[in-house]
Amino acid sequence: MRPLRASLLILGLIAPVPSLAEGERSGEFDYYVMSLSWSPNWCELTGDARQSAQCDADKDHGWTLHGLWPQFTRGYPSYCQSGQRPPSRAQTGAMADIMGTGGLAWHQWKKHGSCSGLDSADYFALSREAYARINRPEVFRKLDRAVSLPASVVEEAFLKANPDLTAQGITITCKQGHIQEARICLSRSLEFIPCGPDVRRDCTLDNALFTPLR
After folding, report:
1. Do 38 and 62 touch, CB atoms closer than 8 A?
2. Which family does it belong to (predicted)?
3. Whether the Cβ atoms of residue 174 and residue 203 lie closer than 8 Å to each other
4. Span 53-68, mean pLDDT?
5. Would you call 51 helix, strand, or coil by DSSP?
6. Where are the alpha helices (DSSP H) in 14-172?
């Protein structure tokens, strides 16, 4: 898609479940998947019903960090056997600025962070570093109303904002007709890499809903 057409579409002027293993040994994985969630869509589909603080208008959340997930070439570990102490409430609460709530940070540590081989402080520090490495396209924050657009336009916007990222290293997911997440594959040293086959499950909708900041 040509840049002008993509920009117009963005502005509105215009699957199978992967295999997983629970209780794997911590630190044994191949790469990371960083999942970014468009907060206004999550709030519309889920967060408002939960009365989540993430959805308060004064929070101004856009792309939030859903999680940094250790991943196998196929499948992923979860709830790993780890000798690390769980994070404190202060640690999880400190992640709310990029994750929306401390509750999500706790859940992500329990399910995914426990598989990283890191202690909770280092895992959250690495998660914050990964989040900072991706340029989140500013154009989505400029929307003043809900628009329908091809999911491919969202991917193209991320690729344009991150020249070292390739189409094989990102996938856009949808849920209930809405853009849901951008999932970006990273090496253990947080370099962009191609995703495994079970992660590359792009949404193919041509009219996915994208709601504006609150």
Report:
1. yes
2. Belongs to the RNase T2 family.
3. yes
4. 94
5. coil
6. 39-42, 48-50, 89-93, 96-99, 102-111, 120-133, 151-161
